[in-house]
Structures are given as structure tokens and as C-alpha cells.
Design goal:
The chain is α+β, with helices and mostly antiparallel strands. The chain has helices spanning 5-23, 53-63, and strands spanning 34-41, 50-51, 70-80, 86-95, 101-113, 116-127. The protein contains 2 helices and 6 strands. The longest helix has 19 residues, at 5-23.
Length: 136
């Protein structure tokens, strides 16, 4: 399957919409972004992968005031995968209520469903050291 410009635009906007929905607390709309059986891999934060949209909602609510007040996505790169899947990498910047911030990389797998493009797998990788830890 060859991705056209429209697919790329829709996928980029879908990835960007994550921050808008989370920051406004519209967690009931996460099914507009993710498949019902999505795997949301947060193992880099010492947690078990979340399975399904309801688990993502529950985790966000449990995190409460520790959630970032701003989720910002940039540097979206989209590549065609196998079996109709698409891989996307993007950078996430989280702004906390106290003004601190953090950086992550989102590694997504997207599939075309009857409802349109949806993320079926997301791995959130924390960026903790410059240059990915490279020293030479």
C-alpha cells in the first residue's frame, strides 16, 4: 500500500490530536486515536504496558495532577510498513504544572480501520540523556 499525501496528513493530525484530547481531559474520545485493543507501552517508565483504551483512560485519571498540563508533539516521521501498517516516530514534550518539562519519543504503529487511521501500538520512550547516551 502506498501512502498518499492525504493519509500522511490525517496520520500527522491524529498523532497531534493526542495532546489536545489529553490536555483538555477529553479522555472519552481516545477511541478516535487508538484501536480498542491498543497496546500502550510505558515500560520505559517502569510500568506494565496498558492494554486497551479503557486502561489508558484509567491510568491518566490515576495519575491525576501529576499529568502534564501540556502535551506537545513534533518531528513526526511516517513510514510505510508491512501488511498495511504504518510506522510513525514523533517527539513529545510534556510541560508540567510546576514549569518543568520532559521529552519522549513516540514509536507508533497505525492501521487503517473502518473508522479511519488508528494507533494500534504506541511505545513511549523517555529521553533522559543527550545524544541518546552516546559519548563518542
Amino acid at each position: 500500500m502506498a501512502l498518499n499525501v492525504e493519509d500522511r496528513l490525517v496520520i500527522s493530525e491524529l498523532i497531534a490530536m493526542h495532546g489536545h484530547l489529553c490536555d483538555s481531559g477529553e479522555l472519552e474520545r481516545l477511541d478516535e486515536l487508538f484501536t480498542g485493543d491498543v497496546i500502550y507501552d510505558v515500560t520505559d517508565f517502569g510500568l506494565e504496558p496498558l492494554k486497551g483504551v479503557q486502561a489508558i483512560r484509567a491510568a491518566a485519571l490515576a495519575l491525576g495532577d501529576a499529568n502534564p498540563v501540556g502535551h506537545h508533539v513534533t518531528n513526526v516521521v511516517i513510514a510505510e510498513g508491512s501488511d498495511g501498517q504504518v510506522q510513525a516516530r514523533s517527539k513529545g514534550i510534556g510541560i508540567n504544572a510546576d514549569g518543568t518539562s520532559g521529552s519522549v519519543t513516540y514509536e507508533d504503529v497505525l492501521v487503517l480501520t473502518e473508522q479511519g487511521w488508528r494507533i494500534s501500538y504506541r511505545k513511549v520512550v523517555a529521553r533522559r540523556v543527550p545524544l541518546g547516551g552516546r559519548t563518542e
